[in-house]
From TrEMBL:
It catalyses: epoxyqueuosine(34) in tRNA + AH2 = queuosine(34) in tRNA + A + H2O. Belongs to the QueG family. InterPro entries: 4Fe4S_Fe-S-bd, 4Fe4S_Fe_S_CS, QueG, QueG_DUF1730. It is an enzyme of class 1 (oxidoreductase). The lineage of its organism: Bacteria, Pseudomonadati, Pseudomonadota, Gammaproteobacteria, Lysobacterales. Binds 2 [4Fe-4S] clusters per monomer. It comes from Rhodanobacter fulvus Jip2. It holds the Pfam family Fer4_16. This is Epoxyqueuosine reductase.
Length: 357
């Protein structure tokens, strides 16, 4: 399929307006259109990789320039349609209250419900089909965190927000609690103006980070980030970072929780993002008791699956080690002291030592 098949009489400005309208009908909060020039972002990414801040995320370097040159990833790409979707459901337990309850497990708010990847990709496919119904065959490909895509840079260039000092995209009318998705296309659509930055002199995100993973404005050392430690890292968590993790068992939201712009955050209308199994504030001891079969069943279709059962137990063991000393916690840890996984055993032993003082 190619834009060469699109009628020469097509009004692309009108089509761009229609695309944004159709995207909103499909549940996307905002839509913007950008070109494919990411030269400055390519240089920033390369410096980040050269400094080794990506840790074990080898895939960040594996694809070479395809990440920063959309036309190399999808030949013929001229424009990128970026969309965002809010994810905080109404009635979700207050994040600060859960973080303040050392007996509860904190799960990043984005991961409490259904995994967003398939949901958003399906909606993007419907958007493409809607465009196709008007212009005929054209070249496109939908992405939702599923390929080497510079989603934040593209969204910034499309006017959806600016990249904050914590490296998360911020929208001045909606904060940062949203997912991003892209539709690469060969249609010569008019582009939107890029978003300007509005962090000013604020450093709250840098100051609050439990593990000091934000080395400075726009400089994230993923190896210290709790989201990386609890999800991407597959082995042992460095001992000096375990206590600062507190009760965070899957991801971390602290840098977003303190961001002043999140006073404008919008609740989602997507029912699939509602918390499952009370994971917005469940007790650590209860979660630690899940068998592998229970873990697989209860996290089916959820982003939490990414950490794996071994990683789930490892993360909870650290949180239990950071919990107030109690017989209940010690008994729960002892029940996993002989776990087949050496990684789980190591973190259980550390937690027991913490509990015993």
């Amino acid at each position: 399929m190619s834009a060469a098949d699109v009628p020469s009489t097509t009004d692309f400005a009108a089509l761009a307006r229609d695309i944004k309208h159709w995207a909103r009908e499909l549940g996307f909060a905002n839509t913007g259109i950008s070109g494919v020039d990411l030269d400055e972002d390519e240089q920033h990414l390369q410096r980040w990789l050269d400094e080794g801040h990506h840790g074990e995320m080898d895939y960040m370097a594996r694809h070479g320039s395809k990440r920063t040159r959309p036309a190399e990833l999808e030949p013929g790409t001229q424009r990128v349609i970026s969309v965002r979707m809010d994810y905080i459901p109404p009635g979700t337990a207050n994040a600060w209250e859960v973080l303040g309850d050392a007996q509860a497990g904190y799960v990043s708010r984005y991961a409490l419900g259904r995994d967003y990847h398939k949901l958003m990709r399906s909606r993007l496919q419907k958007l493409a089909e809607r465009i196709q119904g008007v212009v005929g065959d054209f070249g496109y490909r939908a992405y939702v965190d599923s390929a080497p895509v510079m989603e934040k840079a593209l969204a910034r260039n499309a006017g959806l927000g600016w990249i904050g000092k914590h490296t998360v995209l911020i929208n001045r009318r909606a904060g940062s609690y949203f997912f991003l998705g892209e539709l690469y296309t060969d249609l010569p659509l008019p582009v939107d103006p890029p978003a300007s930055a509005h962090c000013g002199t604020c450093t709250r995100c840098i100051d609050v980070c439990p593990t000091q993973a934000i080395l400075g404005p726009y400089q994230l050392d993923a190896k210290r980030c709790i989201s990386y430690l609890t999800i991407e890292l597959k082995g042992s968590i460095p001992e000096d970072l375990r206590a600062p993790m507190g009760n965070r068992i899957f991801g971390c939201d602290d840098c977003q929780l303190v961001c002043p712009w999140n006073k404008f955050a919008q609740e989602t209308s997507e029912p699939d993002f509602a918390p499952r199994h009370s994971l917005d504030g469940a007790k650590l001891v209860e979660l630690f008791a899940w068998t592998e079969q229970e873990f697989l069943k209860r996290t089916e279709g959820m982003a939490i699956r990414r950490t794996g059962y071994e990683g789930w137990l490892r993360n909870i063991a650290v949180a239990l080690g950071n919990a107030p000393r109690s017989t209940e916690v010690v008994e729960a840890l002892n029940a996993r002291a002989d776990h087949p996984s050496p990684v789980v055993r190591e973190h259980v032993a550390w937690a027991l030592a913490r509990q015993r003082g």
